[in-house]
Amino acid sequence: MAVYTPFEAATAPAVDIFRIPAALTEPSVSTALSEPFVALKGFSMMGTGSMLALAGLDLIGAYCAMRYLHTGHQAWWSVGAISYVFLFGVYAASLKWAELGTVTLGWIVFLQVGVLIMDKVANGTVLPTGKWVAVAAILGLMGYVLLAPNPKTYSPRHIDLPTGAVGVAPSGAAGAVFSDGVVR
Fold first, then answer.
1. Which residues, including other chains, have CB under 8 Å from residue 74's CB and lie 6 or more apart?
2. According to the model, what pLDDT value does residue 59 have?
3. Looking at residue 166, what is its pLDDT?
4. Residue 86 clears pLDDT 90, i.e. is over it
5. Which phi and psi angles does 15 have, rounded to 5°?
6. pLDDT tens readout for residues 38-60
7. Phi-psi region for residue 114, left (φ > 0), alpha (ψ -120 to 50) or beta?
8. Under 8 Å between Cβ of 8 and 62
9. How far apart are CA 139 and CA 118, in angstroms?
10. The model's pTM
């Protein structure tokens, strides 16, 4: 039988603030409702949701920047900065469900559409019908990028370093630097 001291019993495990809680990743009602969409190869409900969340957070930051420039009030600056911190967290977490290129492309497309709508609502900017048709075409093409199956999955290639290697020598140098400091 082990005897624990108060000091050993009080140690808490390290907390990863960027890890998504298990409650959000375990099966739920939303998972059951999304099953028909999951059957589509290459489509990720979480990836699409993260694209929309990224665009929304980016729009919040853009709106706050616009208001800060007009009013000079520090609250707008603070809210905008906080939205970009959250944006980074969502972007990092979204790579768990979707590819970097797909998430980034979707984020930018949704952001541009949101900026056009925000500009129309906030500033009264009028776009001709042809431009709105182009926006609809871009959204349709984005749907193709999201729904079309990818022919091959990505598998990164790593350079095999000799055993005991700490790093790789700069380009043009003789070889790798080993833990004993010798370049071979």
1. 68
2. 93
3. 52
4. yes
5. -105, 130
6. 445 555 678 788 889 999 999 99
7. alpha
8. no
9. 17
10. 0.56
Given CA atoms 167, 168, 169, 173 in this order, what sign does their dihedral have? positive
Instruction: Give the position of tokens 């469900």.
Output: 97
Best CA proximity match to 110, nearest among 63, 50, 40, 38: 50
Measure Cα distances from 146 to 18, 53, 85, 141 in Å.
26, 16, 26, 9
Average pLDDT, the chain: 74
SS3 170: coil
- Amino acid at residue number 18: F
DSSP secondary structure letters along 62-128: HHHHHHHHHH--HHHHHHHHHHHHHHHHHHHHHTTTS-HHHHHHHHHHHHHHHHHHHHHHHH-----
Model confidence over 118-153: pLDDT tens digits?
Answer: 888 888 888 899 988 998 998 888 878 777 776 666
Q: Tell me which amino acid residue 20 is.
A: I
